[in-house]
Amino acid sequence: MKSHLKDILEQVRQGQITVDDAVKKLKDFPYQDLGFAKVDHHRELRKGFPEVIYGLGKTNDQIIKIANAILDKGSNLLITKVEESVYTSLKKSLPQLNYNDLAKVAFLKQKEPPGGQGKIVIITAGTSDIPVAEEAFVTCEIFGNTVEKLYDVGVAGLHRLFGEMDKLMTAKVLIIVAGMEGALPSVVAGITNIPIVAVPTSVGYGASLKGLAALLAMLNSCPGGVGVVNIDNGFGAAYLASLINHL
Amino acid sequence: MKSHLKDILEQVRQGQITVDDAVKKLKDFPYQDLGFAKVDHHRELRKGFPEVIYGLGKTNDQIIKIANAILDKGSNLLITKVEESVYTSLKKSLPQLNYNDLAKVAFLKQKEPPGGQGKIVIITAGTSDIPVAEEAFVTCEIFGNTVEKLYDVGVAGLHRLFGEMDKLMTAKVLIIVAGMEGALPSVVAGITNIPIVAVPTSVGYGASLKGLAALLAMLNSCPGGVGVVNIDNGFGAAYLASLINHL
Amino acid sequence: MKSHLKDILEQVRQGQITVDDAVKKLKDFPYQDLGFAKVDHHRELRKGFPEVIYGLGKTNDQIIKIANAILDKGSNLLITKVEESVYTSLKKSLPQLNYNDLAKVAFLKQKEPPGGQGKIVIITAGTSDIPVAEEAFVTCEIFGNTVEKLYDVGVAGLHRLFGEMDKLMTAKVLIIVAGMEGALPSVVAGITNIPIVAVPTSVGYGASLKGLAALLAMLNSCPGGVGVVNIDNGFGAAYLASLINHL
Amino acid sequence: MKSHLKDILEQVRQGQITVDDAVKKLKDFPYQDLGFAKVDHHRELRKGFPEVIYGLGKTNDQIIKIANAILDKGSNLLITKVEESVYTSLKKSLPQLNYNDLAKVAFLKQKEPPGGQGKIVIITAGTSDIPVAEEAFVTCEIFGNTVEKLYDVGVAGLHRLFGEMDKLMTAKVLIIVAGMEGALPSVVAGITNIPIVAVPTSVGYGASLKGLAALLAMLNSCPGGVGVVNIDNGFGAAYLASLINHL
Amino acid sequence: MKSHLKDILEQVRQGQITVDDAVKKLKDFPYQDLGFAKVDHHRELRKGFPEVIYGLGKTNDQIIKIANAILDKGSNLLITKVEESVYTSLKKSLPQLNYNDLAKVAFLKQKEPPGGQGKIVIITAGTSDIPVAEEAFVTCEIFGNTVEKLYDVGVAGLHRLFGEMDKLMTAKVLIIVAGMEGALPSVVAGITNIPIVAVPTSVGYGASLKGLAALLAMLNSCPGGVGVVNIDNGFGAAYLASLINHL
Amino acid sequence: MKSHLKDILEQVRQGQITVDDAVKKLKDFPYQDLGFAKVDHHRELRKGFPEVIYGLGKTNDQIIKIANAILDKGSNLLITKVEESVYTSLKKSLPQLNYNDLAKVAFLKQKEPPGGQGKIVIITAGTSDIPVAEEAFVTCEIFGNTVEKLYDVGVAGLHRLFGEMDKLMTAKVLIIVAGMEGALPSVVAGITNIPIVAVPTSVGYGASLKGLAALLAMLNSCPGGVGVVNIDNGFGAAYLASLINHL
Amino acid sequence: MKSHLKDILEQVRQGQITVDDAVKKLKDFPYQDLGFAKVDHHRELRKGFPEVIYGLGKTNDQIIKIANAILDKGSNLLITKVEESVYTSLKKSLPQLNYNDLAKVAFLKQKEPPGGQGKIVIITAGTSDIPVAEEAFVTCEIFGNTVEKLYDVGVAGLHRLFGEMDKLMTAKVLIIVAGMEGALPSVVAGITNIPIVAVPTSVGYGASLKGLAALLAMLNSCPGGVGVVNIDNGFGAAYLASLINHL
Amino acid sequence: MKSHLKDILEQVRQGQITVDDAVKKLKDFPYQDLGFAKVDHHRELRKGFPEVIYGLGKTNDQIIKIANAILDKGSNLLITKVEESVYTSLKKSLPQLNYNDLAKVAFLKQKEPPGGQGKIVIITAGTSDIPVAEEAFVTCEIFGNTVEKLYDVGVAGLHRLFGEMDKLMTAKVLIIVAGMEGALPSVVAGITNIPIVAVPTSVGYGASLKGLAALLAMLNSCPGGVGVVNIDNGFGAAYLASLINHL
């Protein structure tokens, strides 16, 4: 690998090279062509984290080959949205692979990632939201963040939230996971000045429209300070929270 | 008018007549045929309140004729969704007509309606929700209820809600009016055991989808005890709350 | 448990304590932290009914632990949206658990709940709507209400509704369950002055959009007096109806 | 005009010519090319009614030229969805043009159309649905049908419908026009065996979604015998009803 | 059964009795209360066809009991949306039951229904639309109509439609079944004056939105004469077509 | 301007330079920074046509400044979605500006664009679709194509289409513009092997959902060979058709 | 077969026969009536490719009969959307049938199709989009085109796209397949002047709405030159691209 | 004002007081009851910024009274979504009020807010997105942030983005504003590790669905690091970005 993006960016920040030169180098960054995939070995330098495998719609064979390409570079491995039966199958080729069965996430940590500066607190409205929260949890950890969980403190019993405010207030960033009416991010945004990454979940039925109701509620939060990611996207929430936590 | 529905229903409750006989009488109840409208003079007996005029999509002339038919029977008059310019025009024919310009409701009370037993408290999340709340207010009043207002206590500053809890807790029924994320009914349902009639409003923009976001949130309320009416339907909320308050 | 919410609320109503003081006590109310759940033992005092377990999205192990926490407090247990296979599994740990297989509701009554004042009548438009109606039925019963059923009286044969009017008219509150065009709440609202809790069901196909058609119809009911809950939400309808019936 | 479609179709029915020959002739049918429009002078023969001008999205000049082309052939003229200001402008060029201001339909009858066999009864749920019903009325009349109106008999006061059943039962086809929850076609279909053409209207607000709620309700009618046309499409309803009435 | 609806309606048509008297009798019409169902034995008189069982959402036991109640009255039996496994199970209790496995319709004809006057032609755009068309076919037959099929003549090869025009033109009513873009009813409406009942199907994927695309297309048909029923509702189309064919 | 994209691409095609080198040069291409806009003077080289101004959401002043920047380079000017009042205002600064009032497009041709190889035929279903077709027409012309118009040949009178087949068959590419049910592209795709660019229009009302019905229909075309652009996007259709015509 | 469409069209282009005569001949073109299907043997002449079987919603038996009818004419066979279990079953009757298990497409090439003039390059944003791309690939090949694949070059690592620009720039037409945010067609359209056929895929979850998000993004592409087909419609994209490539 | 939230929070962070005590104090925080509004004077302490007035749905009189209440406390004033005519009217009572006519935001800075640590760069895809970007700009400034603008660098000419990378890379947080296909946040997220707040705009027409297309695209961003706010919500984006920038 000819050059490290981090160095390049540092040089840009310090005015040592022009951005023009930086961009020209970008095109020379390495990727590994597997035919069905072009593994972006450069991403770890560019984004701070290596490429993550989205498990849906890929064959086991494709996942294994991409995983090996990533592991061969010494990077940490994260595979999201993996059914347990797929994990069992992957495990045969990748015996050190770990699995969070609530989150349906497989992972393998080969080295310590750069640590974040503060703490990320992951909050759920209910117990049924935990699978999405756990996806965020595994992602935050493998991205080098200190994380704490605060589950089942939704609006049906707000005293539970109030009773855990000291844990909540120690966060640098909050990830709030809620389905149904998705009111919890608004409530928390009304009482704190901590940036919130809100994750709607598909928990609910009927007019929850598979999470659209919670999504819309979060996008319309009256109190400010809320950024929203896709329904059930614990991974994406952790990604953004981790970027903020590494500032 | 041959028979009063109230009497009939009382007789049914007391077993003095069969419901069969009661239903047979229903068909004989009076309505007044204006060609473009069949004014249901029987509704006051059947439902407790006289027919209410929905102002949209009717010509001024039609509204005036229906209004006169209702007033001629000595009933109270309520016209919803009436633009001020229409009211001004109606006023010429109906000089005693009153108007709530926030609610865009015209009304004329000719007699005292039967009183409700408890109090209805009307709550809004924000100031922009007031027009819908006022429609509920005027309707509650003309239907004979004691009403109190509690405006602008939404989730952006929950201490305002907590600070007004004593007013809230005196209600027999709550009407809660909220736009944007529509979280307030859920929050209140989490801390009280008072039946809630929730009214989503079209306050908001973009992903509020003209009130659909708030509507969906209210339908998905995690805490129980919430019944929802149409977007911006202050009238319908008051109707249901009044029925409950007259139990 | 330091204080009973009911007492507190009574004191508020009688002006013996300020609401400020009441709210301050709220935060001290007990909940039991199971890690994945914070069981709200205070809810029974606050809402009149103990916490109810929403069965979807929870592991069997989570359900059992929450159920035991509730039962240990001597409260009645209600678990909604439970597949029969899950129930069979739960039954091993909770041998006294009962199951309504139409409603997919598991329940265990340990004590007699406070009784409602009137009767709740549950109406369905068709036979296919019965599962949702039965969820409402089990919930109404465990919440202490007298309930009567009136099934399959939809608009395809209105004489069946008229023939059962005497049963219908004895209700203090109506729960009306209907799929497809969802017209029945409007029809009943046109002929009675009893508050109606309307439950759209996902019965139908194609343009029923899994119950959205019925939901929209009920929200747009021309006659007043109708409050709507989520699609297939028999539990939520019973919750609201029970609150009204306990007024 | 070389051949009359009616004659051709008659010959087909009687086996005098093959349909192959009939179709070959189709391509030779006349149309008049105005550049911006190809006026289909053949339609009257093929469909029983001449081409009708859809007023939206056309310039006054375009409408006038098409109208003159139709009138020049001695056909009756019907222009739908015409604002009053446009009509006033058209009137200058077409002084004999008539206008139904409720329906926003302009028309000019030059000859008597072939009469239908039975009667079409047009029903509305409310007064606000009348504009759409009037569009159907004008269309039915200019297409040669006997028509009767039965307005404002919706579910808010079903005794009005029952009280007019004798008028309703004389129809060969029913056109039922309703907004909001759109329940009336279902109710009528439950008690008659007359074919129903159902027209949802955009009367309502909020969750009526500009008539979608009524449209979906009508498509999901539990009782059979209901065919649905587009929202506010009084013209289309009359077209279908007229075809049935001319059978 | 005290009175036959047909006789009553005849008397109304001939002015021998008032509709008032007719309606009064309606309430006395018989239905059989099975608890979970109120079988409407009166429907055959009122609508011309007996009650039809909608198979979805009912237990086998419920279906069998309703079916027996209908058969006991000597009526013909029709059960729609029945999976083959359910049919196999029903067959044990109802050995004479027949099954159309394309349509997933079970039926048993005990007597000859009153015949229609003309012929119904059922058209499909493609082969994949046949299941819905067959549901219409079975229904038309058991309702006493002469039916002919014209399958796979969609817009991808219009010469197939033109080549079968002589069959098409003999119809009194057309049922046109199409998925994907749903263009066929518009095309046929452009070249005939026969009333069309259009049935959108869920054939397609992606932006067909499970039949919504075809539904919307049919509702927006530019040529007139098209009435639309629910997606995949072959039964409903046959119901309406049969009413028209029996005029 | 250091280098012409066309030359670069030619060199790439002929293997004279690597694409790597070509891409590196891309970043050096010129754009003019107006603060509120970065006018892409390079686009004409890269795409074959200069930057086109999308008129909506821009102030008159912004449009004029961008227009002048484009004209100063000697390029042809095209401004879409411009209301007549805006055009009148622009005209003061740009006196040679032309306007197509049906299309609401302003344009000024300073030089002859490179000509296309074949002919583009623009077809509309109805007269109301002409504004969108005219937007396509002006765009095609200013992009150097030979264009022919074929308006008002929709499915309500297919013989008009058949009668103009010789004009249609001379096209290298077809642009087909249709609202309502949007069936025309499917019909034409069924009988030709010419690539079709389909443009849904917002012509229609109610369930046309402002053009969504036509859009969905076109996306679901059963016959192949149809590419779809945005609703009312005559410009985009012309852009794609012109690229194909210049192959 | 009396006449070849290709010859007819050639004669039309050369003015040797009128289109009128051409159209008249169309109706005489052959199709084979299998009852459940009318196999359009004429399509190969008319469209350049023979009829293709859409596998969904057809029984195995229907597919085999249509396939045999096509093969008997010496045409190439293509069956889309075929599950592997169905293929295995078909294989017994059609032993030479091939299968692309990623694309779920079965095919059998009996003769060489007419070759296209240029090259089609098929691009995917990610590995999960490959099944749709492969459907396009098989279709392009059997339609006689030279095809190249460029997989996994989405916006998460644009340097991969830049690194493969030389492959991309050799195309006459591009097929770009992308799910999730569907941004790749816009990005490519911004830097090339090659016509793009964009295929949204259902890759994603939650707010991807099964591909609607990508579909809408592609329809709204700011850079011009993009035509869109249905979600997951690799076949349709290949069809259009092949028509363009054969120009 | 008894206590400053900031102090309380600091004490919590330093363990000097428990959060329990902190929360108890919350309820005592001041708000000013204007009847139609409860002005939350406490918000500045709690959230870092004072209450902001949402201009839609409020009367001029209400806005002025709330504004005065805020100004009286010495806080800075921000009023969003204010039409110019409303501003002109407000200006009479609040002569020092400023107005950004692109953003439709009124504001009045009375004191210097606490400064952020880094820089916020606001990016737009096009010129038509500027009004929303300007709303973000004014908000960022009044909230004490250093801000830079980078307008019109969308995917139609990516070299403009590359050419401004040095400006972009100096940001601590990015606000990216885009309508139509909303691809820009994904593209930027692919090449940087700076947290992105994405703002979809309603720029576009037809299938942009008033910004829903861009919203969905942003929620489905394949590259991570993107948090989304409501359509056209420049204010909300600035709020979140400011919180992050003040970390």
Outline the structure in words:
Eight copies of one chain form a homooctamer. Chain A has 247 residues and is an alpha/beta fold. Chain A has eleven helices and eleven strands. Chain A has helices at residues 5-13, 19-26, 43-47, 60-72, 84-93, 130-142, 158-163, 165-169, 184-191, 212-219, 234-245, and strands at residues 32-33, 38-39, 53-54, 77-80, 98-100, 105-108, 119-124, 146-150, 173-178, 196-200, 226-228. In chain A, strands 8-7-9-10-11 form a five-stranded parallel beta sheet. Chain A has a four-stranded mixed beta sheet with strand order 3-4-6-5, with helices on both faces. In chain A, helix 6 (130-142) runs parallel beside helix 11. The radius of gyration of chain A is 19 Å and the shape is globular.
Write the layout of secondary structure elements.
The structure is a homooctamer of 247-residue chains.
Chain A (H helix, E strand, L loop, with lengths): L4 H9 L5 H8 L5 E2 L4 E2 L3 H5 L5 E2 L5 H13 L4 E4 L3 H10 L4 E3 L4 E4 L10 E6 L5 H13 L3 E5 L7 H6 L1 H5 L3 E6 L5 H8 L4 E5 L11 H8 L6 E3 L5 H12 L2
Parallel strand pairs in A: 3-4, 7-8, 7-9, 9-10, 10-11
Antiparallel strand pairs in A: 1-2, 4-6, 5-6
Helix pairs in contact in A: 6-11
Task: Give the overall shape of chain A.
Answer: globular
Q: Measured on Cα atoms, how large is the radius of gyration of chain A?
A: 19 Å
Major sheet: arrangement of strands of chain A: 8-7-9-10-11
Low-confidence runs of at least 5 consecutive residues of chain A: none
Chain pair sharing the greatest interface: A-H, 47 and 47 residues
Distance between the termini of chain A: 26 Å
Q: Output mean pLDDT of chain A.
A: 89
Oligomer: homooctamer
Strands of chain A, total number: 11
Q: What class, by secondary structure content of chain A?
A: alpha/beta
What is the helix tally of chain A?
A: 11
Strand content of chain A: 15-25%
Major sheet details of chain A: 5 strands, parallel
Task: Determine the fraction of residues in helical runs of chain A and give it as a percent range.
Answer: 25-40%
Order of helices and strands of chain A: HHEEHEHEHEEEHEHHEHEHEH
